[in-house]
């Protein structure tokens, strides 16, 4: 698993949940007399294993990651990377625009399926973040292969990389950067469960794995096998769109972040933690009402009950990628936005498309199948829906799942009448078989499916 590539982290994650104390980084051993935590961990890993096995997977090629990275809203986030406390250099127009970007990202976010797993290259992600021009303001780059991540002991916090101490020589430090990033996202409204009996938003959990190109870990087979064969979790689950947090906490239904009072420090910490947007003292009264509403509906479950008490094995508080998660999660939301291109319906669909005389159903042998659907991105502003021609016989279709998508209705003059989100649903006849598929998001035109 050292050379883990995009597409392999999901399976490694399912396998790791069988023995999390051995296959997750820094998973605290559970005392056998702690029956409460033993039961919590047992229940959660069983639930997560089952959920991951029915989750729709999206393998994201580098070109799609790059398309999202260079979008205006993501570039605006990167443009403030060089700012440090107290953020006095931040200008009001960009501060207001960053808030509008965050509000639009959350309010317009829709999942194509109620559970989605997105995997993309951490090497590509780190390369984009590291080579972005704004990073020159953050890092003093002298030796590209060795010193790119440190400047007076600091690290560019959007990188998915961190220093590790050599256990045999505490004076020596290595740079560790994973190879693959995985994002597990759930629709709260459609995934009602004991752990989330509330909210109409979504949750994101971030995982990494493998040893990436930026790492300078020694070429020691045993060491690299030990590091490369473990899943690296960001030890928190991000929740968006939650409501009535204070009431839920009183009822014992929510154990995540407390409901913060709205002083400046809390506004800054929540905004920076969840959206990578600092709140300077001078702008404490310039938060947009809709952004404050978004902030009050986002929280984190640090999941110490599952992983155990956080360990201080990584110096200076850099713990397993917590600092890079907000930016990587915003990038993932942008990738899904690119995927959710609208379909255009130019006229109402006929209630009876098969208007020819229907013959008898031919004798079709039912069969199941699985395939990976390759989708070429980005799409144009809209994709026209073609009305199927009439046919004499109704052959039927096998049962298949249709992903959620936007649909725009236009009148005969081409004017937009309305836009609506069509949820994931199932079509077809199970008697003819079942079609299962995952998705491969690409910018390459060769062999892309018509979708």
Topology:
Elements: H1 9-16, H2 20-23, H3 35-53, E1 56-60, H4 62-69, H5 72-78, H6 92-107, E2 115-121, H7 122-131, E3 162-166, E4 169-176, E5 180-187, E6 202-209, H8 221-228, E7 232-233, E8 237-240, H9 245-250, H10 264-275, H11 289-296, E9 299-301, H12 304-307, H13 325-339, E10 343-345, E11 369-376, E12 383-384, E13 398-402, E14 405-410, E15 416-422, E16 425-427, E17 429-442
Parallel strand pairs: 1-2, 1-17, 10-12, 10-14, 11-17, 13-17
Antiparallel strand pairs: 2-5, 3-4, 5-6, 6-7, 6-8, 8-9, 13-16, 14-15
Helix pairs in contact: 1-3, 4-13
Summary keywords:
451 residues, alpha/beta, 2 domains, 11-stranded mixed beta sheet, 4-stranded mixed beta sheet, 13 helices, 17 strands
Account of the 3D structure:
With about 450 residues, the chain is α/β, with parallel strands linked by helices. It has two domains: about 10-340, no CATH class; about 345-440, no CATH class. It is about 30% helix and about 20% strand. It is built from 13 helices and 17 strands. The strands form three sheets. Strands 1, 2, 5, 6, 7, 8, 9, 11, 13, 16 and 17 form an eleven-stranded mixed sheet that branches. A four-stranded mixed sheet has the order 12-10-14-15, with no helix packed on it. Helix 1 packs antiparallel against helix 3 and helix 4 (about 60-70) crosses helix 13. It is globular, with a radius of gyration of 24 Å. The two termini are about 30 Å apart. Mean pLDDT is about 80; it is low at about 135-155, about 310-320 and about 350-355.
